[in-house]
Amino acid sequence: MDYTGLAQRLAEVHQFPCTYMIKLIGVTNVLLERTIRDSVDGVLPGAEFTLTCRASAKDRFSSWTLDVTVPDVESVIALYTALEPLEGLKVLL
């Protein structure tokens, strides 16, 4: 996916370093949550982040809110690139 437009918009709107929020929706799965955490650690080793989870009413899907301290635009793009292909992930915002 081409994130050029997002990179330009991020540079206009945010002052880096900053805390950036990413929303994820996927199948309820402990492994998916662990994979999200591992992906963040892989892109930004040692970065401070919180990952909160909320399950759907029937517990089939979960939504996660990732708040992570990012040093620059490239780190945000790298996070999206790392998270996008995760198995079981349905929506990445």
Structure description:
- This protein has 93 residues and is an alpha+beta fold.
- The protein has a single domain, classed as Alpha-Beta Plaits (2-Layer Sandwich), CATH 3.30.70.
- Helix content is 38%, strand content 33%.
- It contains 3 helices and 4 strands.
- Strands 2-3-1-4 form a 4-stranded antiparallel beta sheet.
- It starts with a helix and ends with a strand.
- 10% of the residues are buried.
- The mean pLDDT is 96.
Features:
93 residues, alpha+beta, Alpha-Beta Plaits, 4-stranded antiparallel sheet, 3 helices, 4 strands, 38% helix
- The residue fraction in helices comes out at 25-40%
Indicate the CATH topology: Alpha-Beta Plaits
Order of helices and strands: HEHEEHE
- Give the terminus-to-terminus CA distance: 14 Å
Categorize the overall geometry.
Answer: globular
Chain-wise SSE layout:
Layout: H1 4-13, E1 18-27, H2 30-43, E2 49-55, E3 61-70, H3 73-83, E4 89-92
Antiparallel strand pairs: 1-3, 1-4, 2-3
Helix pairs in contact: 1-3, 2-3
Explain briefly what this protein structure is:
The protein has 93 residues and is of the alpha+beta class.
